[in-house]
Specification:
globular, five-stranded antiparallel beta sheet
Length: 203
């Protein structure tokens, strides 16, 4: 397992193809958080069940457990395709993935892996917000906070066609330092549903 270090993360992965996918995903996000988020990733044939007495918070394809007594965060993905354990105080993630999970990496990066990264960034004072963040032609910043399927991506794409700059259409982080709050967008392709695509064609 080789440790790869970047300005914003350190990654050790025992599978070369998964290592490449993870590095591309992290680099392509264009996030420049302070310090390191450390990721230790192993590919295993089977992820054994783990008895965790803490309350479970079900999410689509995920089960999240957090809090006392040890303050770690455990994320189980699709029952047996992946598991992440986020350290109780440090921005460290230990990840297990099966070959089946690796084969679904595109699904993992938008759900399981992103959720693990969100919890790890909390350890350095970054807070996730589900929003679109854009800059208008006059240089003013705009933040559109709304639930899923409310039109954030469609609005972002429409404004981008009118000269606005899109920081993110879905994922951002807030950070506060020296009395100021900053917003950082997680770069990813604008994800338009079919209705949004049809609307843009008519504009």
């Amino acid at each position: 397992m080789t440790l790869t270090t970047r300005p914003t993360y350190a990654l050790a992965c025992d599978d070369p193809s998964l290592d490449t996918l993870l590095r591309f995903w992290l680099d392509d996000s264009q996030l420049a958080w302070p310090g390191h988020v450390d990721l230790f990733v192993r590919v295993v044939d089977f992820i054994p069940p783990h008895v965790d007495p803490r309350e479970s918070f079900p999410q689509p394809e995920m089960l999240i457990q957090a809090g006392a007594p040890d303050e770690t965060v455990r994320i189980r993905w699709n029952d047996s395709e992946g598991e992440a354990l986020i350290h109780e105080t440090e921005p460290r993630i230990d990840i297990l993935m099966t070959p089946a999970g690796v084969a679904r990496f595109e699904v993992a990066e938008r759900g399981f892996l992103l959720a693990a990264l969100i919890f790890a960034l909390r350890r350095i004072g970054w807070y996730h917000i589900h929003c679109a963040a854009l800059t208008d032609p006059a240089g003013r910043g705009w933040l559109f906070v709304a639930p899923s399927q409310s039109g954030k991506s469609t609005t972002s794409a429409l404004l981008a066609s009118r000269g606005w700059s899109v920081s993110t259409d879905d994922i951002a982080f807030l950070s506060r330092a020296d009395g100021a709050t900053s917003l950082y967008g997680f770069s990813s392709p604008i994800a338009l549903r079919s209705g949004g695509k049809e609307l843009l064609v008519d504009c």
